[in-house]
Design brief:
single chain; about 210 residues; alpha+beta; 6-stranded antiparallel beta barrel; two-stranded parallel ribbon; 5 helices; globular
């Protein structure tokens, strides 16, 4: 049976609908950085997703390409994630999505070394005839965070975020968003096929003790 990160690490991917505190360890991602409205048809964000999934599935299917990665195991490609911010804005201004800065990413198994990542970029470029120069291998340790399962439209997230912050403050923590620690979302639903009111998104914010 294929290893499923969502099931094996429920504390990171399937939190309850009430805020919780979590310590997030170092993880490895394929990532693309960009800016602009994620809903723009044919925009930078949509192009980034094509690149991310191109690399993620090249790595997953590497045995069928005759490429043996040391430590490889069968797994389900983890969900899409995103780190979001807007210059000069505390929090998120949903009325001006065109000002979004983002890092879109997909978690990679720990067996993906720099060498294997570079192989995947070259292989995807050869097979798909696309420019994958924008992808990067990113390692990140989020550390102490407050998180919650948000159910509903993305534009309704502020209420969930307010509840998260109130919970964290009640536990003796303060928000710690910075240039290194960002608003983080993990997308458990396909927005193209799921009604907005049923979308499930993990929302995570960095915190620190008072």
């Amino acid at each position: 049976m294929s290893f499923d990160y969502k099931k094996e690490y429920k504390e990171f991917y399937l939190p309850p609908a009430k805020p919780t505190i979590v310590q997030v360890p170092a993880m490895r991602y394929v990532a693309v950085r960009g800016c602009g409205d994620p809903n723009q048809e044919g925009g930078a964000y949509q192009a980034a997703l094509n690149l991310l999934y191109g690399i993620a599935f090249t790595i997953k299917m590497s045995p069928k390409a005759g490429h043996a990665m040391d430590g490889y195991f069968e797994y389900v490609v983890p969900p899409l994630e995103g780190f979001w911010w807007q210059d000069g804005v505390a929090g998120v201004d949903y009325a001006h999505k065109e000002n979004f800065q983002w890092i879109s990413c997909i978690r990679l198994p720990d067996f993906v070394t720099r060498g294997e990542f570079d192989w995947a970029v070259a292989e995807a470029t050869r097979k798909k005839k696309l420019d994958f120069s924008a992808v990067e291998l990113m390692e990140l340790e989020e550390g102490l965070c407050v998180q919650c399962m948000h159910v509903g439209p993305y534009d309704d997230e502020p209420a969930t975020v307010d509840a998260m912050h109130a919970f964290a403050e009640g536990k003796g923590y303060v928000l710690d968003i910075s240039d290194e620690r960002r608003h983080h979302e993990i997308y458990l639903s396909d927005a193209r096929r799921t009604a907005p009111e049923k979308l499930k998104t993990v929302v995570r914010h960095p915190i620190r003790p008072v």
